[in-house]
Amino acid sequence: MIVRCLSPHVAMAQTGCTRLDWRQPYRALERVRSTAWTCGCRATAYELCEGGGQAFIRRVVQLDTGHEVHETPCWPIAEARTVWTALLTGRAR
Known about the structure:
The chain is mainly β. It has a domain at 33-88. Helix content is 13%, strand content 33%. It contains one helix and five strands, in the order βββββα. The protein has one helix at residues 77-88; strands at 33-37, 44-51, 54-63, 66-71, 75-76. Strands 1, 2, 3, 4 and 5 form a five-stranded antiparallel sheet that branches. A hairpin with a 6-residue loop joins β1 (33-37) and β2 (44-51).
């Protein structure tokens, strides 16, 4: 049986890609919702989270002992979507 992924995968990081500032999760925004995400079939998955005119990217790494979550600082939504596209295409990591 062939299982097809429904969500996108992140491309390999390109040489000289932008390094994102990954931090421990913090409650900068009261309410957020995931508006885009990558496939969960890989060890690391990403979500674009938006709320209150701001957005950030959440990274979830699946480990044998559970999972590890990091988030970027908040940006205006348009800027966060640009960074999201860079992440998907390997221009940011």
